[in-house]
């Protein structure tokens, strides 16, 4: 049936009509808010390349978490910045590490908030790589033991979800087996199954002080032109015990998100990463875009591509904007 009988504009005639037939919605329940936690007291260090985002000491972080809870955002994703680093990232799995302390305090004060912990070594190693390094090479298998120790220490501190982001082969299996052996059979794994060696991570590396001191991460993070490889990575992680999946970054990889969604049924998250956030903030500050409209449009596009969950630094603003629309 074609024009003049078919007139698609009939269903766009008013705001109420458009709401009635809307196919995709962005909701508060879709959001996870990433937070950087650092050592010390009364610390709130602005991250220059990420306006509105800070490195927070635990006492300052609690105020931020209170705001997250009050807005109805279901969870936070924690990244730790230790006071010292070494070659094997021992701060990542120390019982008194910055993340372990933070999780314990946050869960004690806000037991209903989901606390997700990033499991990787790059924030804790003095060389900035995500694993054990020997003669300039990142070693896969020796790294698995350290990642598993990190995951168990996070779970023991009260973490609700473990999110390994290192991209070592076999790390989901190693973490799952270690969690189960330690009695954390009910702790889910949200795996960064598809993580590209992207140019969009620059501001994060400033925030976490995690830039590699030599070389790059292309030997373990995925090559941006590849999509079939992404599906193999997802299939392997599911087979190893991943409960949820992440595609990272989001904006340049929505075709990957759509393909993962089409081929796999589990909960799927995207990480709207630091460089994506910084671009919008910079353009908005210059008056080149409408920040609210552009951000909501982009995040809705991620939902349309198939994401169930969006990890985004925009989360606090997004909730306020969504509430204004009600």
TrEMBL record:
Its EC number is 4.2.1.24. Keywords: Heme biosynthesis, Lyase, Magnesium, Metal-binding, Porphyrin biosynthesis, Zinc. It catalyses: 2 5-aminolevulinate = porphobilinogen + 2 H2O + H(+). SMART domains: ALAD. Zn(2+) binds at residues 120, 122, 130. The keyword Metal-binding applies. Mg(2+) binds at residue 233. One of its GO terms (molecular function) is porphobilinogen synthase activity. One of its GO terms (biological process) is heme biosynthetic process. Pfam families: ALAD (PF00490). SUPFAM superfamilies: Aldolase (SSF51569). 5-aminolevulinate 1 binds at residues 205, 217. Pathway: Porphyrin-containing compound metabolism; protoporphyrin-IX biosynthesis; coproporphyrinogen-III from 5-aminolevulinate: step 1/4. Its cofactor is Zn(2+). Gene3D superfamilies: Aldolase class I (3.20.20.70). The active site is at 195 (schiff-base intermediate with substrate), 248 (schiff-base intermediate with substrate). 5-aminolevulinate 2 binds at residues 274, 313. GO terms for cellular component: cytosol. Belongs to the ALAD family. Homooctamer. Catalyzes an early step in the biosynthesis of tetrapyrroles. Binds two molecules of 5-aminolevulinate per subunit, each at a distinct site, and catalyzes their condensation to form porphobilinogen. This is Delta-aminolevulinic acid dehydratase. The lineage of its organism: Bacteria, Bacillati, Bacillota, Clostridia, Eubacteriales.
């Amino acid at each position: 049936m074609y024009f003049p009988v078919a007139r698609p504009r009939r269903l766009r005639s008013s705001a109420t009509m458009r709401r009635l037939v809307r196919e995709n919605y962005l909701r508060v329940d879709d959001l996870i808010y990433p937070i950087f936690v650092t050592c010390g007291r009364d610390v709130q260090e602005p991250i220059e390349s990420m306006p509105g985002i800070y490195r927070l000491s635990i006492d300052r972080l609690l105020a931020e978490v209170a705001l997250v809870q009050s807005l109805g955002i279901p969870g936070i994703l924690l990244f730790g910045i230790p006071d010292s680093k070494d070659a094997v990232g021992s701060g990542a799995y120390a019982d008194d590490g910055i993340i372990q302390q933070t999780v314990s305090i946050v869960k004690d004060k806000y037991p209903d908030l989901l606390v997700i912990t990033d499991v990787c070594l790059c924030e804790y190693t003095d060389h900035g790589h995500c694993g054990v390094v020997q003669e300039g090479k990142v070693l896969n298998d020796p790294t698995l033991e350290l990642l598993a120790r990190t995951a168990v220490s996070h779970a023991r501190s009260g973490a609700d979800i473990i999110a390994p982001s290192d991209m070592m082969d076999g790390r989901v299996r190693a973490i799952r087996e270690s969690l189960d052996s330690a009695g954390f059979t009910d702790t889910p794994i949200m795996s960064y199954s598809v993580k590209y060696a992207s140019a969009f991570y620059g501001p994060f590396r400033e925030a976490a002080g995690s830039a590699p001191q030599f070389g790059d991460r292309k030997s373990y993070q995925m090559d941006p032109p590849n999509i079939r490889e992404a599906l193999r990575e997802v299939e392997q992680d599911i087979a190893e015990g991943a409960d949820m999946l992440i595609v990272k970054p989001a904006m340049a990889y929505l075709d990957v998100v759509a393909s993962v969604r089409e081929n796999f049924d589990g909960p799927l998250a995207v990480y709207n990463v630091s460089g994506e956030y910084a671009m919008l903030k910079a353009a908005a500050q210059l008056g080149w875009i409408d920040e609210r409209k552009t951000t909501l449009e982009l995040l809705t596009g991620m939902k349309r591509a198939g994401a169930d969950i969006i990890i985004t630094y925009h989360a606090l603003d997004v909730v306020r904007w969504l509430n204004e629309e009600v």
